[in-house]
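tool=predict chain=A
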Amino acid sequence: MWVVAFTLGLFGSLHCVGMCGPLAIAFCDNEGDTTSQRLKSGISYNLGRTFTYSILGLIFGLLGSFLVVVDLQKVLSIVLGILLIFSFLLSYDIDQKINGLPLMRTLYAKLRLGISKMYSKAKQYHPFTLGAANGLLPCGLVYLALAGAVASGSLIQGMIFMSLFGLGTIPMMLTLILGFKLLNPKMRFQFRRVLPYVTLCFGLFLIYRGVVVGMPEELNFWEMLKNPLMCH
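tool=predict ok
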C-alpha cells in the first residue's frame, strides 16, 4: 500500500506540473534568488503541501476506520475502483463534477480568494505556509489519493498514505521549480493528460485490494511473491 501511495504521487505529479506548477513557480522563484535559495523555498513549499495532505489523510483515514468496524471496507474499495475505471472509460472529469457541487463551489471560492490574497503578498509568507494553503485547492489527483486513504481503513494508515503520496509529488515539483524554463507551456499541458491513466491504474488497484483483503495467503498474489511455497 505504501509503495502504491508514493508511486501515485510520483506519476501523478506530471498532472501537478500542468495544473499548479505555475503557482509553485510564482511562490518559490523570487527575482534574484540563487539556485540554492529556490531549492530551499521549493522544499519548504512542497513539505507544506505534504503536511496538509497528511492532515487530510488523518480525517479520511478515520472515516475508513468506521467502515472497517461495520465491515464495509472491502465493498468500498471495490466500489471506488469500479467508479474510477468508469470515469476513465467515460472520460468523466472528476475535478469538474466534485467541484461543481454547491458546497464545494462555495468552499473553494473562499479558498481561492484567500490564496489570491496570499499570492499578492507572497513575500510576506513562508513557503511552507503557502504550500500548506495550496494543498487545500481542488485537485483530481488528491481526490484519488484520498480514496486510497479511506480504503486504508485506519487513521494512522490514512495519514501515512497521504504523507507518502505528497512526498512522491516532490521530485517532479522541485524539478519544475529549479528548471521550469525547460518545460514550455505546451509540454506542461501535455502532462495534464496523464491523470486519466493514473485513475485507471489506481482503480484497478483498489478493486484488487478489495478482493484480496482477508483472502488466505496462498491465494494472495503479492503475499505469494514475498513468501513462495517451497517443496521439501
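The chain has one domain: 2-226. Residues 35-69 form the longest helix (35 residues).
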